[in-house]
Specification:
The protein is of the alpha+beta class and 505 residues long. The protein has 13 helices and 20 strands.
C-alpha cells in the first residue's frame, strides 16, 4: 500500500469483508447515463417524463451530507452529475452499511427519479451497491488537485476532481473523430506506417534510439511518418493519411512534448495551394462540428477559424522585421548577434532562428506563412518563379505553428542531393545517412503531390481553449518520480467521518 491509503478507510474495508460484503465486486450494474436522466427530467415546476421512473445510476460519490435519517450526496459519471437521496425508511436493511461509505467511493444506486422540496433533481434510492471502495481520500471539495504537477501525475484523479478536465478529453476524442470523417469524405484512406525506423527522417529533430536484439541493429522511434506515406503515393494509393504518434528527443514546454500526435496526409495531383484550401476547410469544419461555431478563445484572445485564411510571405516578413534579405548572410549574422542568438549553428538554421525570434509572434492568424527558403525545406519542391524558395507553408494561430505543408519534392536526383547536403551538414538533428530506399522509390516516379501535417495536440489546444499542451495530453511527459518525492496522504483532504512542432517541420 502507498502512503495515500487512509487508515479509517482501510478499517472500513476490513469490516466489510468480515461482514461478508465484497468491497470490490466482480459485477457492475446496468446503469443509465446521468445526462439522459437529466435531459428527460425537466425541473420541479415542469417535470419531464423521467420523473417517477425507476432507474439505475452508477458513478463516483462526492462528499455525503448526513442528516441522521436522510443522506444526500452528489454522484457523477462520464456524462454528468445529479444527486442521490438515501432514506432510512426505504433502506432499512442496508442502512447500517452507510457507515462504510466515503467520498470517492464508486456506487450503484437504483431508485425513483424525483425532486427535493428545494427543487433539486434526485434519485431516491431503494437499492445501494458499493462497486469499489476508495482507500485514498479525494482532493478537497472546492479546489481539486491544486498542485499542477500532481494533476498531471495523477490524471486519473484530476479528471473527476477538477472541473472541466474530463470535458477537454471528451472533446479531444470528438476532434480526432471529426478529422477522420472530414478526410474520409474527401476520399482519403487511413493507413498505418512503421513506428520503428532504420533511418530517422521526414523532419529535423533529435530521435529516440533503441536496439533490436534479434536483428542486432539500432532503430529510431519515428520523428515523422512522411517518407513512408509518400512511398504509398508512389504505390498508387493517391490519397492517404495517418494520425501518428511521433517521438522527438527534445525539450518540454507549453507547446512541446517528446511524444505527440500528428496528422499527416498526402494527395497526388495536388500542390501546396490545394493543401492550403484543405487545411483551412478542415480546421473550419472540425470547429463547427465540435464547437458549433468557428469562433474560439485561445490565450486571452478571440479568433475566427472561418476560411479563407490570410497569406503572408516568409521572405517579405523577414525583410520587414529585420531590414535585410534572408540570404544576405553578413546582415543576417549581424542581426542574430543583436538578438543574442547562438551563432555557432549553421547559417540556414541561424537565419530561421532570426525569423522565429522576430516574426513568429506577429503571425496571430489564422494565417498561412508561405514560400520558405529552400535550404530549410529539404523535402519541398522549388518555386518555379523563384528557385531560392520552396513551395512550403506553415499555418499559425496566436504565434503558434499548427501545421506545415509542401508541394512535395519528387525529383529523385534533387532529393538525393539534398539528403547528401543534410548528412554533410553534421547537424545533430539531421539524418546520419541518406535514405537510399526512399530515393529509389522516387526513381520509379511519384506524381505531383501535396502534403500536409497538422499537430493534433495543438489543434485541440485551440479548439478547447487550453494554454498548455500538457492540458490536452492525458499523460504528459514528466521527470521520473523518486520514492522520496511521492506525495504524502496529507496532500489529499483529511479523512472523512462516516458521512501537456507539429508538423512536417
Amino acid at each position: 500500500m502507498t502512503d495515500l491509503v487512509q487508515p479509517d478507510r482501510l478499517a472500513k474495508l476490513q469490516a466489510m469483508r468480515a461482514a461478508g460484503v465484497d468491497p470490490f465486486p466482480a459485477r457492475g450494474v446496468d446503469a443509465t447515463p446521468i445526462e439522459q436522466i437529466v435531459a428527460r427530467a425537466g425541473d420541479s415546476a415542469n417535470p419531464g417524463p423521467a420523473v417517477g421512473e425507476r432507474v439505475t445510476v452508477a458513478g463516483r460519490m462526492a462528499m455525503p451530507r448526513d442528516f441522521g435519517k436522510l443522506i444526500f450526496a452528489p454522484l457523477g459519471d462520464r456524462t454528468g452529475k445529479l444527486q442521490i437521496g438515501l432514506r432510512r425508511d426505504a433502506l432499512s436493511e442496508w442502512w447500517p452499511q452507510r457507515k462504510w461509505l466515503d467520498a470517492g467511493d464508486l456506487v450503484g444506486v437504483t431508485g425513483e427519479v424525483g425532486f427535493t422540496q428545494k427543487g433539486e433533481l434526485t434519485v431516491w434510492a431503494s437499492e445501494v451497491q458499493l462497486l469499489a471502495k476508495a482507500l485514498a481520500s479525494p482532493p478537497e471539495k472546492w479546489h481539486g488537485l491544486v498542485d499542477v504537477e500532481a494533476r498531471y501525475r495523477r490524471r486519473y484523479v484530476d479528471m473527476w476532481a477538477t472541473e472541466g478536465v474530463l470535458d477537454t478529453f471528451v472533446k479531444r476524442s470528438k476532434i480526432v473523430s471529426a478529422v477522420r470523417r472530414f478526410l474520409e469524405a474527401q476520399g482519403y484512406l487511413e493507413v498505418e506506417t512503421p513506428t520503428l525506423h532504420p533511418i530517422f527522417g521526414g523532419a529535423t529533430a533529435r530521435p529516440f534510439v533503441t536496439h533490436h536484439n534479434a536483428l542486432d541493429a539500432d532503430f529510431y522511434l519515428r520523428i515523422a511518418p512522411e517518407l513512408y506515406l509518400k512511398r504509398l503515393i508512389v504505390g498508387g494509393m493517391e490519397r492517404v493519411f495517418e494520425i501518428a504518434r511521433n517521438f522527438r528527443n527534445e525539450g518540454i514546454s507549453t507547446r512541446h512534448n517528446p511524444e505527440f500526435s500528428m496528422l499527416e496526409l498526402y494527395e497526388a495531383q495536388a500542390d501546396y495551394r490545394r493543401m492550403m484550401e484543405l487545411a483551412e476547410s478542415l480546421v473550419e469544419s472540425v470547429a463547427r462540428e465540435v464547437n458549433g461555431t468557428t469562433l474560439v478563445n485561445f490565450r486571452g484572445r478571440e479568433y475566427d477559424l472561418k476560411a479563407p485564411f490570410k497569406r503572408v510571405s516568409y521572405t517579405e516578413l523577414f525583410r520587414e522585421q529585420n531590414g535585410c534579405a534572408f540570404d544576405d548572410e553578413p546582415a543576417v549574422r549581424k542581426r542574430a548577434k543583436e538578438l543574442g542568438l547562438d551563432e555557432t549553428v549553421g547559417y540556414w538554421k541561424l537565419m530561421n532562428d532570426v525569423f522565429e525570434a522576430t516574426c513568429e509572434e506577429l503571425l496571430v492568424g489564422p494565417v498561412f506563412c508561405v514560400d520558405y527558403p529552400v535550404p530549410i525545406c529539404p523535402l519541398a519542391k522549388r518555386k518555379p518563379e523563384d528557385p531560392r524558395v520552396a513551395e512550403r507553408f506553415e499555418l499559425f494561430l496566436g504565434g503558434m505553428e499548427l501545421g506545415n505543408a509542401f508541394t512535395e519534392l519528387n525529383d529523385p536526383l534533387d532529393q538525393e542531393q539534398r539528403f547528401v547536403e543534410q548528412v554533410a551538414s553534421k547537424d545533430p538533428e539531421a539524418p546520419g545517412e541518406v535514405d537510399v530506399d526512399y530515393v529509389q522509390a522516387l526513381e520509379y516516379g511519384m506524381p505531383p503531390t501535396g502534403g500536409l501535417g497538422i499537430g493534433i495536440d495543438r489543434l485541440v489546444m485551440v479548439l478547447t481553449g487550453q494554454d498548455s499542451i500538457r492540458d490536452v495530453l492525458l499523460f504528459p511527459a514528466l521527470r521520473p518520480q523518486r520514492s522520496s518525492d511521492r506525495p504524502a496522504a496529507a496532500e489529499s483532504a483529511p479523512p472523512e467521518s462516516a458521512a501537456q512542432k507539429p508538423a512536417k517541420a
